[in-house]
Amino acid sequence: MNSTPRTTPNRYDPLTRLLHWGMFFLLLAVCALVELHEIFPKGSSGRTAMMALHMSLGVIALIMVLPRLGWRVVQALRGALPDESAMPGWQRLASKAMYLAFYLLLLALPVSGYLGVALDARSVDVFGLFTLPPIGAGDHNLAHDLKEVHETLANVFIALVGLHFAAALWHHFGLRDDVLLRMK
């Protein structure tokens, strides 16, 4: 009896779905924290705590993208991804481009965020489990520039999530195919 999670032609395996939705909710929390921290005055303990949690969860997201990417590669090598051969070529290309963009951003966002903090001579404590050290004595201008890059990448990521969501709805309600149900 094979206990390996299975992908059917119309549905992803349970581990893929868990990694997908787990990452979604983790990143939703990361985004909410960075947006909601502004309800606290600058320099307040509440604002500092929300940003510390934002950074800790960002590091966790970076750690979690590695098994997610690894599992996707394993599934692709096993030929266990849902069959997209019936989709028009432009849709398959768009799907692959979206996956590539997501994975690049899932790597670039936490790295740029960390560098923006570390180059400002600050460390990142991750839930008291470990600390990512500062880099050098501090370069405020470079750190500021990296924080701007981080924010721009975050906005691109949010736009891509919106596009991903819209495409899933289009498949479900417009094309009436099973693409949305693959992650259910």
From TrEMBL:
Presence of keyword Oxidoreductase: no
Family: Belongs to the cytochrome b561 family.
GO biological process, one term: respiratory electron transport chain
GO molecular function: electron transfer activity; heme binding; metal ion binding
Keyword Disulfide bond recorded: no
Membrane-topology descriptor: Multi-pass membrane protein
Domain Cytochrome b561 bacterial/Ni-hydrogenase: 11-183
Gene3D superfamilies xrefs: Transmembrane di-heme cytochromes, Chain C
Keywords recorded for this protein, A-Z: Cell membrane, Electron transport, Heme, Iron, Membrane, Metal-binding, Transmembrane, Transmembrane helix, Transport
Record-given protein name: Cytochrome b561
GO cellular component: plasma membrane
Primary localization class, coarse: membrane
Locations listed in the record: Cell membrane
Transmembrane segments: 18-36, 48-66, 97-117, 153-173
Needed co-factor(s): heme b
